[in-house]
Amino acid sequence: MSRGTLFDKVWDLHTVSTLPSGQTQLFIGLHLIHEVTSPQAFAMIRERKLPVLFPNRTVATVDHIVPTDNQARPLADSLAEEMLQALEKNCQDYNIRFYGIGSGNQGIVHVIAPEQGLTQPGMTIACGDSHTSTHGAFGAIAFGIGTSQVRDVLASQTLALAKLKVRKIEVNGSLRPGVYAKDVILHIIRKLGVKGGVGYAYEFAGSTFAQMTMEERMTVCNMAIEGGARCGYVNPDQVTFDYLQGRDQAPKGEAWEQAVAWWQSLASDPDAVYDDGVVFDAAEIPPTVTWGITPGQGIGVNEPIPEPKYLPDSEKALAQEAYTYMQLEPGQPIQGTKVDVCFIGSCTNGRISDLREAAKIAQGRQVAPGIKAFVVPGSERVKEAAEAEGLDQIFTAAGFEWREPGCSMCLAMNPDKLQGSQISASSSNRNFKGRQGSASGRTLLMSPAMVVAAAVTGQVTDVRELLN
Ligand SMILES: CC(C)[C@H](C(=O)O)[C@@H](O)C(=O)O
Ligand code: SF4
User: Fold this and answer.
1) What region holds the Aconitase/3-isopropylmalate dehydratase large subunit alpha/beta/alpha domain (predicted)?
2) ipTM for the assembly
3) What is the pLDDT of residues 231-247, one digit of tens each?
4) What structural domains does the chain harbor?
């Protein structure tokens, strides 16, 4: 029964059957794949001699393992080359669209699908990648799946899933200068916890999201999963339609008008019933930085690292683990913490608008001595657009390295890795232990503008001090 939310409407429209288990057999409109989680799925369908049922509903790219300096084939890392070849072969054998290196369309899977207009409102989208929640920015129901589910989608274009509850997260008002979409989602996760969203889809509503661009909404939805919500979404509106109109895979002509009317009808009704609701005031959100080992361990850049006595009992053990691992003292300010590496990129903040905001701060400044700072565009299209605007020049003049597109040091499944216990200021989405390629490497998550502020000062700095 629809309760009037976009989630319920889209879910019901894609329900093929209710399984004896009580789960829904859900039709998946768009399936995105990459080199890391697809090889075994293909192996499983090969073994069972199953076809890919709707090859035109699957789109592939390579992102995690690509080097961001020299991308010449064969790739220097033989394991990476093998993974790339496996994906190429699977796509060829099963007639699947593949956006490879140099195609002009390669990039992080969650960057390329929206930019090509593949991601559309009202769709169900699955990918063997947790940050598939990104696509919810368009009013799609998009979620990450495991490799055996990738197999299920390849073979049947459906998944067996339990329906989620829906929590409405309202943020109202204008963000203060120096506060970005990244801060909004870090703040939400700080307040609701990394497990707060388990069992829920997050609907992001209110005037703050209404005022956001599509790329800002993608940043927010990208990290819904870090708050435990398997998917997050924003209802489609004129901002969504304006972004999509004219994109390669978007409907054209009369089909466009019909699509817009259809998409509008899918937005949550004003009287929709939610399982839960939370309201935030945008003006109260500070530039936020993580100090710990989960994306929920965030604080305002001007706040001290929380002392155990101020934490609920349930958070104390994790905080202890974080002080030790991060080599940070409770009660000390996070501002002024020295950093070693500054990384701008990832599916959270590797889009053109992110690079523009970062370049605004970098312009006319210099990366501090001894800091390694680099910018990795989220896709080949982002790179091309950035170069057309001269952003690469601004970054390189400031002492940043300008790289080829890929996931890069977000996860360091390529040569971009922290060394030893280096600290990075990172525009990515995960600060787990060892996340960025060194078992003792440390990650501070923040907005791209804050990463630049850290790069040019050599330490965690309130970006508002650098705004004119
Ligand atoms: C490699 C992949 C399965 C993984 C994910 O699921 O998200 C990665 O993209 C990440 O960000 O940790
Ligand atoms: S950029 Fe990072 S979070 Fe996004 S898909 Fe790649 S590894 Fe995962």
Assistant:
1) 8-458
2) 0.99
3) 999 999 999 999 999 99
4) 19-161 (3.30.499.10), 288-466 (3.30.499.10)
